[in-house]
Amino acid sequence: METLTSSRFRLGLWVGLILLGLGLSVGQWALAQSDANRSAVVLTIDGAIGPATMDYVVRGIEQAELDEAAVVVLRMDTPGGLMDSMRTIIKSILASEVPVVTWVTPAGARAASAGTYILYGSHVAAMSPATNLGSATPVQMGGMPGSSEPAENDGDGSSSGEEGEAGDSEPSSEGSTAMERKVMEDAVSYIRELAERHGRNADWAERAVREAVNLGASEALEQNVIDVVADDLDDLLAQINGRQVVMANGERTLDTANLAIVRQQPDWRTDLLSVITDPNVAYFLMIIGFYGIIFELANPGSLYPGVIGAICLVLALFAFQVLSVNYAGLALILLGLAFIVGEAFAPSFGMLGVGGIVAFVLGSVILMDGSHRDISLPTVGGTAAVAGGFILWTVTRFMGLRGKPSAVGVEHVSDTRCRALDDFKQDGDLYRGHVQLGGERWNAISKEPITNGQWLKAEHVDGLTVEVSPGAEPSLAHQVGQSTQTRSGQQ
Fold first, then answer.
1. What residues does CATH 2.40.50.140 cover in the chain?
2. Nearest CA to 254 among 289, 227, 292, 224?
3. Which pLDDT tens digit goes with each residue over 176-188?
4. I want to staple 113 with a disulfide (CB 3.0 to 4.6 A). Which of 59, 133, 150, 447 is the partner?
5. Pick from 246, 102, 104, 120: which is nearest to 190 by CA?
């Protein structure tokens, strides 16, 4: 009995030890898996900020939240961009459940204009050595009141905008119109709130908006404009480890040690949006779409111009919807294209065409004027030159046709060569028979006797009867053509 009890005790002890070992192993494995799943998601902003950039960043932050990433790092190098896209990005950052670190890198990069706002709106603001930020003065877009974007930094500390094309004028802190003052004060209030939320220098942020000032990385760190100056990504994650940041639901301490780096590059959707929303591409899509629809209406059933034109026009309208455009310029472009097409269908000897080119060029110039995302003048000039060549060809073609005899109708019959199909029979003072004229069999009369096969000249038409007279025999080539027509008529 004692032996049985002892055996059971030893068995239970061994089972307990095995279960304890398994539990420790599973715990260590789960802990290791948890550490392995902790990641830093790296997104890249390189170039002007627009709808494509906005879509890429917002989707990247949402995916990082689903993956429960530890931190999102925005690698940024931008000259600025559209105000609407910038604000959407900042809203996504402020509402994010994952801390967002904006890092201006590599050396030589900048966070100008809209980039400065995004840097101030991020939970951690970082820069690499030899980078700069600033020039956050808003400018009007294409003359549309209430639609603005931060000014583009030209790289020399100046702001390009409505003050001048070269950007060498000092920006006014007050603005010259009521609308400009509204936009300015709105931008100042916005960037100060972002600065105060994260405990950064709000006074310098206001100067960046009103005076378009700039700072380098080391000066920005000294003046509490940014939080960190980091040489590389490992250095950045090491410096921000343990830092407290303000999230939407309160403060949080960052734990960025031993993170796996996950780089999310722009996908095909972002690349497609970048291409479509380029002003020059959208401009060409609109022109192709307009002409495609016109050609389809002029030749119903050809299908290809209509299908291609409709697709291009819809894509162009989408691009113009997300871009800030001057609708007066868009209307002038469409009016100019309509005049150019009208010249071909209702020739006015150049009046419609010249007016169309003038309207087209003026509309193209002011379509996105006042921003760094305008349409290049060589593109406008080249398109206008092609349209001008088309109009010149159309006008000269119509002028040449005016001197030619009619190719259809009764007028076409006069002085046309034909051939007798039988011997004409006398009927009073006239001779009657039949002729082959233009591939058709006609009743014919003549004042002289006519024999079968004789070459004749048509004088004029009276109803369905043509009056003919003997004519010289045509050249060999003309005879071949007439014989071909005769055979076709007989068939």
1. 410-490
2. 227
3. 678 788 889 999 9
4. 150
5. 120
